[in-house]
Amino acid sequence: MSLPRLASFGAEPAGERLRRIERSPHYDAATGTFRNPVHAATAPRAEGSRLEMARVMLNRKERRPAAPVRVRRPDLAEPPASGLRLTWLGHSTVLAEIDGRRVLFDPVWGERCSPFTFVGPRRYHPPPLPLAALGGVDVVVVSHDHYDHLDMPTIRALARSDVHFVVPLGVGAHLERWKLRPDRFTELDWHESTRVAGLTLTATPARHFCGRGLRNRQRTLWASWVVTGPDHRVFHSGDTGYFAGFADTGSAHGPFDATMIQVGAYSDYWPDIHMTPEEGVRTHLDLCGTAADSVLLPIHWGTFNLAPHPWYEPGERMLSATSEAGVRLAVPPPGGSFEPSSRDLPDTPWWRASGGAGGRTSPAAAVGERAGEGAVRRSAPDGGGGKGTPGRGGTSETSAAQSG
């Protein structure tokens, strides 16, 4: 007799959904799983024993902030003057206000990225604002079904509005398990597109894997995403290892006004499925080519402890990597907003005020963060704009920390 399956685990694709999966050119019928565009080892690649890897992962040194992380509450009262604004809400959650519409990527408001409320990676900082205070959203985009990207309580809360969800092929099985009607979401295979609220959303390849249970059958797809409006276009990487196909995505859909690139949770134990900051910069260049005005927003870092590297390390490495490559970088604190066309992008290393950079707090960084100041990395022409929706403006700062 089998035990009831927790709702948070979601559901396996079945019926017509499974038949559609089996028809996908990216599905391997021989193994019964989706395959990556380039081979990727999804099991840890440990040079030593798995015990050694466990020992490394359990070492907590510098893997959590030494002081509270200051989050900012976004001011979303006015539309962006340029028609495009990004607000980083922590980890891979980004609100993109694009040509009068609002797109929410990988929304996670949960305390832990886990099927359980009492165990699993816990936030370094709370969400910058309550979900109910976010305001109306036109479309929610999910990159894949891992817990730090697809959070059941958050999805259920968002489903109380009339927002439409766009997800990779197979993920709809989870949404139906959580009582969403099929007309509330659209499932896409790689290279498929849909139109929502005047925006075109396209699922593009990524190099990762999926699964929410102990037995991962790899029957839900993972994806990166392109969102195109009348005047602007953005790219969200989801979780991915580097592969040469990003240049194809750039050729087909770019150049982009901004890219949101995964640069955290990397490790030598799993080099194929997460990118280092330097690989993230290479991805941005592949996507944007010679578009010097494009801005890179690092995501998938600074919120959960998911890898052996120090919690602040992705930010430090991004500062160096983008400077060397001549890439425009925005590193707002959690809750911080920016318009990619602005001459003044947020690049104050806010993490140093929480004990980053070798566990030392930088007094200059702390003062700058308290004042809400940010240095100018590079200048760019003021961009033209489309019609905005709520959200222009600054942010108000709060101080908060999470223990555990």
Automatic annotation (TrEMBL):
Pfam family, one: Lactamase_B_2
Ranges of compositional bias, category Basic and acidic residues: 370-380
Compositional bias ranges of the Gly residues kind: 382-394
Region (Disordered): 328-404
Composition-biased stretches (Polar residues): 395-404
Gene3D superfamilies noted in UniProt: Ribonuclease Z/Hydroxyacylglutathione hydrolase-like
Transmembrane portions of the chain: none
InterPro entries: Metallo-B-lactamas, RibonucZ/Hydroxyglut_hydro
Domain Metallo-beta-lactamase: 101-301
PANTHER family in alphabetical order: N-ACYL-PHOSPHATIDYLETHANOLAMINE-HYDROLYZING PHOSPHOLIPASE D
Full protein name: MBL fold metallo-hydrolase
Upper classification of the organism: Bacteria, Bacillati, Actinomycetota, Actinomycetes, Kitasatosporales
